[in-house]
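Sequence, structure tokens passed on for absentees:
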Amino acid sequence: MTVREESERLEEMILSPFAAFSKNSRGRVLPEKDIPPENDLRTVYQRDRDRLIHCKSFRRLKHKTQVFLSPEGDHYRTRLTHTLEVSQIARTIAKALRLNEDLTEAAALGHDLGHTPFGHAGERALSSILPSGFRHYEQSVRVVDKLEKDGRGLNLTHEVRDAIRCHTSGTEADTMEGKILRWADKIAYMNHDIDDAIRAGMLREDDMPDRVKKRLGNSKTERITTLISSVVGNSGSGIVGMGKNEREAFDELHAFLYEAVYLNDYAKSEEKKVPYIIESLFRYFRKPDNLPSLFRMIAEKDSVETAAGDYISGMTDHYAIEVFRDIYIPKAWNG
């Protein structure tokens, strides 16, 4: 018995009947004849996890905004640290429910690969320009399918791709592991956004609504523990959910943060510049000759608007500003 086969056998012994077993994966978009499975040490989901963590799009997340635009402090979250926190929370829930941690981790690592520079401000700006709009969860699937590895894609399993696509809203994922990802994402961003807002001097723990503190706790650790425990305690038999009391407090906290942080004029003042940057970049790269070679091919196959959206959405905050400056800001004369 190979290492991979032993891992698959252990899954059948340990995991819940509602888990997504590696040997039962619906497979990949393309066959992989160059990697004989009988010689592989890893299950299909372990292989997906490794492909994601080594890809260029994953590394670029460290320079993409989470909430605070290009923060100078070392301890503010970026899209990368958000992704790692989502992964940790999702794995904790998956382990407690005896689900497939490898699938859960892989989906968490890939869920935001398609996010634009400048966070949701960049996403809104790009969505207003593109004829078909822009949704980062759909773009994340496009990244792993068509953009990574110079257009060859990562060729991930159906289950990982499905969990990435369904992590935000709308249709639920096919697997419980994918359903976990949606909750883990919410729990992570709600709590680390509070932490960053406190660090920025915009909030204090005492500012949290009384009912939220009573039901969820008085600190980040208490809130995360309560919410994770609620998901674990209210999930099973193919369903992933949260208890009524915790969900009500969670929704109240989200409404509070929306007004206190997400719409805060001080914190968001620089975001007013984002649409102009995105629109200017789009206007320039809408001309195929201005696109890099990979994206010129996409323009020929799909459309130049799609190619420009692909290129801009993959930029980091720093790179988008650098490209904008290079195109539109006059350079000093060195003669």
Observations:
- Residues 3-328 form a domain with the Hypothetical protein af1432 fold (CATH 1.10.3210.10).
- Residues 137 and 165 are 5 Å apart (CA to CA).
- The chain has one domain: 3-328.
- DSSP finds 17 helices and no strands in the chain.
